[in-house]
């Protein structure tokens, strides 16, 4: 069996897949954009290689000996036709055995999203694939929203009173690893959610109990969220994508509970309470 290329190896899901590959002694390549900065950070047995979607000259080296790819879209990449399609075309010309693509819950109906456009291109090219369509990451609260929870003891997202079926990236990574290792998952799509949908009021209550201090959910308007995020110098295109995601929760469209993870993992998904305990040091 050839090597697995992990794109997004320094990110939430990719980083967890790297850990699993190292633990299971599976040959993997970590794609890195800055080799000098990231080339020495990986576990034993993981080979870092330089890769840039926008530089096709990096494709042959990063793909040498690779038969399967875990693909995620970098958040800063919105023009997927220009920046990601060339890599997919390269994969299709080189008899790739499988792409496991980290998509988005409901992507099949969200034709305006970059995720769906990537799915459609993979299908058009006929690349063997597995689409993983997760709900909102629990770990976004330890990254994107970490500082507001840690420093301001609040959650500031425009989700209203809607509920979200939060999913732990560790579960997604395990699902991705199993998809890459088991042929029965070829050419299938899985919707990945937690086992319970929570409002942000409930999220704040759980965090308050774990951190032993009050965490408040402010329930801001969509405009307030966009303006405040922009004031904090966040990338505007990323802020708008986040606003769309939170709006789906606001209008009751993010609470879907699926059996994707139990089927893939053979167990129940990690609960939000367990996640909060495991990551509580992020907010202290």
Describe the protein in words.
This protein has 284 residues and is of the alpha/beta class. The protein is built from 13 helices and 11 strands. α6 links the parallel β5 and β6.
Q: What is the compact description of this entry?
A:
The chain is an alpha/beta fold and 284 residues long. Helix content is 41%, strand content 15%. Helix 9 (200-211) runs parallel beside helix 13 and helix 10 (222-231) runs antiparallel to helix 11 (236-250).
What descriptive keywords fit this protein?
single chain, 284 residues, alpha/beta, seven-stranded parallel sheet, two-stranded parallel sheet, 13 helices, 11 strands
The main pleated sheet reads as: 7 strands, parallel
Number of helical stretches of at least 4 residues: 13
Distance between the termini: 44 Å
Write down how many β-strands occur, each being a DSSP E stretch of 2 or more residues: 11
Low-confidence stretches: none
The fraction of residues assigned to DSSP E strands is 15-25%
Fraction in helix: 40-55%
Q: Layout of SSEs?
A:
Blueprint: E1 3-6, H1 12-23, E2 28-32, H2 35-38, E3 46-50, H3 59-63, E4 66-71, H4 80-83, H5 85-93, E5 98-102, H6 114-125, E6 129-134, H7 146-152, E7 154-155, E8 163-164, H8 169-181, E9 188-192, E10 198-199, H9 200-211, E11 216-217, H10 222-231, H11 236-250, H12 260-265, H13 272-278
Parallel strand pairs: 1-2, 1-4, 2-3, 4-5, 5-6, 6-9, 7-11
Antiparallel strand pairs: 8-10
Helix pairs in contact: 1-8, 5-6, 9-13, 10-11
